Amino acid sequence: xxxxxxxxxxxxxxxxxxxxxxxxxxxxxxxxxxxxxxxxxxxxxxxxxxxxxxxxxxxxxxxxxxxxxxxxxxxxxxxxxxxxxxxxxxxxxxxxxxxxxxxxxxxxxxxxxxxxxxxxxxxxxxxxxxxxxxxxxxxxxxxxxxxxxxxxxxxxxxxxxxxxxxxxxxxxxxxxxxxxxxxxxxxxxxxxxxxxxxxxxxxxxxxxxxxxxxxxxxxxxxxxxxxxxxxxxxxxxxxxxxxxxxxxxxxxxxxxxx
Length: 258
Description:
Zincin-like, 2 domains, five-stranded mixed β-sheet, four-stranded mixed β-sheet, 6 helices
């Protein structure tokens, strides 16, 4: 998830207009995506999409460019750290590779002649996931998406029952910068790679999104709903930020592009 740095620019009139669309602008040789809104601070993020600047609606462009330039060293550190974390998270799919999926041990078995992924139990009480050797990376994602969706739907239903809200449609996605999202119109979408984290971390994300069915914001009332569903959310949120940076990216046998 993105690294973020915030500064209060003490600009005037910045909360007068609604949020505007993003656009790309250069600053000191660096391209960044600019998001203006009714806010009082400047937020600088580095994520998988690049550099993102969130600024007050009326803050002059030259001040935003200067802000980005002034934090050039911080940006370079974040870019380098993300590159190093990405390289350290790469996992080559080989027969016998062990994973933890929603807290259960899973061993991979890659076989010739298998057309689609299938699950079976093992003598130790874990699971074996059999993958076709033709495209094991895609097959692994397909299998984990299906298993994650079943788990997500159960947890969403349980949390909705506690808050007394209707159970929405639940979908599995692969957003580049979010673990989950919630919309009154389209329901809840959760990242399939949550299945590769500890179940309590995945459940915190589910609880967070279900709480948005009550409050589509991050107000005190919103966080009170999160606390009802997940009392340990502050510690879990910190863990998610730390452990989520190391969620694996899979490569086919023999390496190659992911």
